[in-house]
Amino acid sequence: MTTGTTDESIRYTADVVLLAAGQVLLILRGWDPYEGCWALPGGHVDRGETSLEAAARELKEETGIGVGVADLRQVGAYDAPGRDPRGRYVTVAYTATLASPVPPAAGDDATAARWWPLNALPNLAFDHAEILAEILAGATSS
Q1: CB-side exposure of 20: number of CA atoms within 13 Å?
Q2: Max Cα–Cα distance, the chain, nearest Å
């Protein structure tokens, strides 16, 4: 039995890596933490919602691009302590690939949304560079 442990509040989120023609869709965060930094579209899982449903909803809200839940593939859960400076956040990451980029329209918490070439990415917020790298490594090995 471990002594000295306390319960920890955990927040549940979902992120999306949307790829098209050698590019990834990113949003510009409009709030702290990482205000003004680029990140994957995503956000909190609402009450009564699965992470898959949240991923599709957040993608649509933040970028204006709709992808059906059947087109999203779960790639992993990310739960490293300290991955978010606000506290303990666990995210489930999903990916989908479009045949070609669709023009995004920033909305909700995003101040901008745009496609970035995979070979010319900006610095990413949170652990999103790690998530993207793992997804890309999996895509090239399969």
Answers
A1: 16
A2: 54
Closest CA to 127 of 91, 95, 94: 91
Is pLDDT above 60 for 50?
Answer: yes
Query: What average pLDDT score do residues 76-84 get?
Result: 94
Query: What is the CATH number that goes with domain 10-141?
Result: 3.90.79.10
Query: Model-level pTM?
Result: 0.91
pLDDT of residue 107: 87
Domain ranges for the chain: 10-141
- As a whole number of angstroms, the distance between CA 40 and CA 28 comes to 9
| Alpha carbon distance 14, 33 (integer Å) | 17
Per-state percent for the chain, helix, strand, coil, to nearest 5 = 20, 35, 45
Distance CA 26, CA 28 (A): 7
DSSP 122: P
